[in-house]
Amino acid sequence: MANGLTHLNERGEAHMVDVGGKDATRRRAVARAVLEAQPETVEAIIGGALKKGDALAVARIAGIMAAKKTADLIPLCHPIPLTKVEVEIIGEGVALVITASAETTGQTGVEMEALTAASVTALTLYDMAKAIDRGMTITNVQLVEKTGGKSGDYRRES
Predict the structure, then answer these.
(1) pLDDT tens profile 95-146
(2) CA-to-CA distance for 149 and 108, rounded, in angstroms?
(3) Higher pLDDT among residues 13 and 3, named by residue
């Protein structure tokens, strides 16, 4: 039998968790993804030399938009009024490191929104650069930290 905050109801069926009784608190999550590519690909993306245009600007916007649509993409995820979403993309050798943060004042966390933003940003960069490097890989999609909420704070080591 299900009880507490679970995605299973009393019959063992998937359902959306009722967060109606939880207090609204300030919540923030940060996620990261890494796009590994050939050095020339990283240079082309960072330098704005792709034929499709400014990949960094397009990917940032895609990540922000994806965070706002997370409940439409992830089953049983609550729609959340986001107060802030930021996406940063930094070139590091043969990789682009994407860091996405999402914030809200609400009854449930924003981990999925940050993870979705980081993932979609990486996918957008892949899409924009695939004509020159189909061997790119997206790795290390992970929650880096979260603050707020009943479960407390979390920070990934290293």
Answers:
(1) 999 999 999 998 788 999 999 999 999 999 999 999 999 999 999 999 999 9
(2) 7
(3) 13
Given the DSSP bridges, would you call strands 82-92 and 95-106 parallel, antiparallel or unpaired?
antiparallel
Domain boundaries, the chain: 25-155
Cα–Cα distance, 67 to 63 (Å, whole number): 6
Q: Is 78 annotated as a binding residue?
A: yes
125 is in an annotated binding site: no
Instruction: Supply the pTM of this predicted model.
Output: 0.88
Q: Is 77 annotated as a binding residue?
A: yes
Question: How far lies 60's CA from each of 75, 93, 123, 151, in Å?
Answer: 24, 20, 11, 29
Pick the CATH number of 25-155 from 3.40.50.360, 2.40.50.140, 3.30.70.640, 3.40.50.720: 3.30.70.640
**Catalytic residue list:** 127
Structure tokens at 149: 């909420």
